[in-house]
């Protein structure tokens, strides 16, 4: 069987690595992939948002299943295109992916499904937004409606900041089309948690709870990033919270999408704020998270190919999905300057050869490329180093043990991944 993974980050490396362990021994392709993925899959130089190019490749190469990593091709309708061409694909259709691609659409469906979330109001006219925000308590949250690469949310602590954020988004169009509509949202004060779930449009199979670290600096300080690390399971996601999220968030959302005629198939990601012991939805994503995937997938005991098939054949209810009871921690090693401007093409040293990695650690590549005999940086987030153990403390020790052996000029990483869980 031939499987194509679309994407090029740490998330896709973790997917390819997991698929490579399948007893079904699939032949793996990744588009476009990176230098680490290249040791497990044939990398094809087609960009992840080149829907037509990917479709032609899948037809030509007779790919059995295509798995979509990032959100952009989903929002462009890659799943619809593949289905029309009778190609099997793992991910939601364009309509279903609107749960991520339009925050106001997600809010509408949450309201219909009575899912707990922050109060918010959506605006298409700047004057209305500016008038409304004046009457809101501070801090207040301003969100671009569309996909803004994790930069579209501003938490404003003054009216001036809030108005500036509205003007930047709606008038100056700093997020392009994605910010023409904004949401003004109530600020929720709590602790964040991610729970992702496999779903075939009907059955929901939640994954263990994870927590990521968005801020660049130790102690959750500094600028927001794509994610500097993650750990799993997050103790904040108690059995009670997991149960409530399944019954009160994930299942109602999947049911609501089916009722709307846009059944959601793939991975549904719930970004949550746990406040006063209750799970409030901050957002939905229509795919797996990065770096959450790197800590969650290694704990999946069931063959991932079996899960992909059960989802695409709508028989997830017949598969028992099992998880290892271990803990994982992943530390992102980033380029100097990231999340601001950074250099690329810097050689990496000390990378352990893939074959020396044991059960307790793994180096997933995020932004790397091959240049002759060297592996060089090719992105802001360069590596996701995974440690695994019986406890989070053990997993954290493993991750940092490996991080210390790798270096590149300008490299920085957080030294406190999983601190929220370990301080307890
Ligand atoms: N209502 C809210 N109250 C407090 N913090 C929020 C709220 N909405 C978003 N945030 C913060 O902003 C981050 C990004 O918001 P999110 O809705 O996840 O958008 P995106 O991931 O698309 O940028 C969240 O991870 C959270 O830290
Ligand atoms: Mg988010």
Gist?
The protein has 424 residues and is α+β, with helices and mostly antiparallel strands.
Can you tell me about this structure?
There is one protein chain. The chain has 4 domains: 2-94, Rossmann fold; 125-180, 2-Layer Sandwich (Dna Ligase, domain 1); 191-318, ATP-grasp fold, B domain (D-amino Acid Aminotransferase, Chain A, domain 1); 327-422, Glycinamide Ribonucleotide Synthetase, Chain A, domain 4. Strands 3-2-1-4-5 form a 5-stranded parallel sheet. The protein has helices at 10-20, 51-60, 71-75, 78-84, 98-101, 103-112, 126-133, 159-170, 239-259, 292-296, 304-312, 392-403, 419-422; strands spanning 2-7, 27-32, 42-43, 65-68, 89-90, 120-123, 140-144, 153-156, 182-186, 191-199, 204-206, 211-212, 215-217, 221-224, 229-232, 266-275, 278-285, 327-334, 361-365, 368-371, 374-377, 381-389. With 424 residues, it is of the alpha+beta class. The chain binds adenosine-5'-diphosphate and magnesium ion. Residues 271, 283 line the site of magnesium ion. Magnesium ion binds at residues 271, 283.
Descriptive terms for the model:
single chain, 424 residues, alpha+beta, Rossmann fold, Dna Ligase, domain 1, D-amino Acid Aminotransferase, Chain A, domain 1, 4 domains, five-stranded parallel β-sheet, five-stranded antiparallel β-sheet, 13 helices, 26% strand, globular, binds adenosine-5'-diphosphate, binds magnesium ion
